[in-house]
Specification:
Elements lengths: L14 E6 L1 H4 L13 H12 L4 E4 L7 H15 L3 E5 L2 H5 L4 H17 L3 E5 L14 H18 L2 E3 L22 H15 L21 H29 L11 E6 L43
Parallel strand pairs: 1-2, 1-3, 3-4, 4-5
Antiparallel strand pairs: 2-6
Helix pairs in contact: 2-7, 3-5, 5-6
Length: 308
């Protein structure tokens, strides 16, 4: 099955099911009521504005491995028979050392199953982790996995969102303090690019760099020392809890349910509105304040989340 022609990119999408891990659940893009929005909720809001009666489900749960997403979420997505299914998973497996060739051999049949059910399939490459120490050690394996995903997208005609090439996400302000999950700014930009890939009109440009951070004139030695302190804080607050959880066999998603488990009408449209002007924090920030309207969802995360 070849790639879709340009004229086929924007048919009516009346139902959308998102499956995956914390990236699709929406960590760390806080929404009303103490839950999370995320790129998927934001895209769903854009689709709802164009399609009367639009329905949306989000089955993603933080910490899930690819095999768990395929076993637990994919059958439910097929059962719902939506027009569009997004599948983003594998990052947690890579963090745990899984063979990316094996991951790709599991990912491809999942795509085939969704397409056999008549679903349009949306997939994502992994991010380029070069911005942060330690995590950048995974760069080669993520790049290899991405090549597999691009091949699968070509072979099956999937919509592909290339996160690796999004240079705006090289800015540390697009990432939460755990360095593993996007802020509201990051999710907003991913949502805009996803709409672009799907052929859904949206206001905003994900390519525009974030405004310059203040304090850029600081001495190099002071900036280096601040960066090393931030690295030490990250290791203490996020990396070590992750290691302890791996040793105990636990996951941040244990016991959690999907935030939107049923394919229902979207009564509270999400928004692709840009985070409020002047709300951009300094490097290594917390979540952005002044969030646009969206969906109540999920539970707040804890420190030391899984990779995606």
């Amino acid at each position: 099955m070849g790639p879709m022609a340009e004229s086929d990119l924007a048919p009516g999408i009346g139902a959308f099911v998102a499956i995956g891990d914390s990236f699709t659940e929406g960590l760390h893009d806080p929404g009303p009521g103490g839950g999370y929005l995320g790129w998927a909720d934001r895209v769903a809001g854009a689709l709802a504005q164009r399609q009367p009666g639009f329905r949306y489900a989000n089955l993603a749960i933080r910490g899930k491995l690819l095999g768990e997403v395929i076993a637990e979420q994919l059958p439910r997505a097929v059962e719902m028979a939506p027009d569009l299914v997004s599948l983003a998973a594998g990052g947690n497996d890579i963090l745990r050392g899984s063979d990316v060739d094996v991951l790709a051999s599991e990912f491809e049949p999942a795509v085939a199953k969704l397409q056999a059910a008549g679903c349009r399939v949306l997939i994502f490459t992994g991010f380029d982790p070069r911005t942060f120490p330690v995590i950048r050690l995974l760069r080669g394996r993520i790049a290899a996995y991405n090549m597999h995903l691009r091949g699968i997208a070509d072979a099956y005609g999937c919509d592909l969102v290339d996160l690796w090439s999004m240079r705006a996400l090289d800015d540390v302000r697009a990432w939460s303090p755990d360095r593993l999950h996007l802020t509201s700014e990051g999710h907003w930009r991913v949502a805009l690019r996803t709409c672009e890939v799907l052929g859904v009109p949206a206001t905003g440009d994900w390519r525009i760099p974030l405004p310059p951070a203040s304090g850029g004139s600081s001495r190099n030695s002071a900036r280096w020392l601040a960066a090393r302190r931030a690295d030490a804080s990250w290791a203490r607050e996020y990396a070590m809890p992750w290691v302890r959880r791996r040793l105990s066999g636990g996951s941040t998603g244990d016991g959690l349910l999907a935030k939107r488990p049923d394919l229902l009408a979207l009564s509270l449209p999400g928004s692709l509105q840009e985070p409020l002007p002047g709300s951009l924090p300094e490097p290594l920030p917390g979540p952005l304040p002044g969030l646009p309207p969206g969906l109540p969802a999920g539970l707040p995360g804890e420190v030391g989340q899984d990779l995606f």
